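HUMAN: Ready with one sample?

ASSISTANT:
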Amino acid sequence: MTLPALHNTGVLYRRILSQFPQDISLAFAYGSGVFKQHGTSQGQMEKNMLDFVFAVDDPVTWHTMNLLQNRKHYSILKLFGPTMISSIQNEHGAAVYYNTLVPVDGRIIKYGVISTESLIDDLMHWKTLYVAGRLHKPVKMLVQSENAKLRAALVANLKSTVTASFLMLPESFTEEDLFLQIAGLSYAGDFRMVIGEDKSKVANIVKDNFQHFRILYSNILRDCPQVVYKPQQGKLEVDKSPEGQFTQLMALPRTLQQRITKLVDPPGKNRDVEEILLQVAQDPDCGAVVQQGLWKTVSYSSKKLMKMWKGWRRKPSMSQMS
């Protein structure tokens, strides 16, 4: 199965990408500077910062080349060299190193660099849900290598998103309900949604990008045995039996399963994960437990990133960090 992607061949994106080292396994643009959000005019959108993520196989080599080409993009950390920058990238926050407030071709951009290995890990296991969460929503895919493991992880991330959303939704719901749930997954537990962010951000993302969400998820929904998908009516029905919910829980990413088991299993009991998830599947509050597990994952990585950014970067506004 191939990943449905919103490919963009616009001159602006090609010009921006041409100013960076080309050894990139995956590059995408995202956010309010790329996709229109409800209540934002085209003029406002063109003034918003453009957000990018670059996945690279060898971060040390990539930062070495980028420091030669774009040294001014970096904070004071450039004085410590590419090895230190890569170490900070890999060992702190969400395994992403960001350069922000960078003027390129008449626009202000920020770009995050993540190793291909760390990206695959986040897509498969939701260790931080930081970059994986951005890929739950429509993005403009600019570069995608033939790396089969990465391509499979991109699809697995979308399937996991659907599964987690099913567990938190009622038996019958609309496509809009599903897409709102999906768009909100990576914001659960994010302190920026409590202070500084537009509280209607999730609804604004979905409202003007409904068809983009459909393109991204329609094949997965059609192929999923856990749901009856009626695209003509925009309605879905999911299996909410204990057996159905257990199947869905067992298909969740590893980190989320671990968070759920820690929430449910008393300290020292050390029951098997499968046994605990079977118990959760029979709980009327199953969806709330999954929601709490997501909250733990996102809040942990969000707080770590905030702490790192405060110490090591020029300080952007809250709205520039999403």
Q: What stands out?
A: The chain has one domain: 11-302. Residues 11-302 form one domain. The two ends are 29 Å apart (CA to CA).
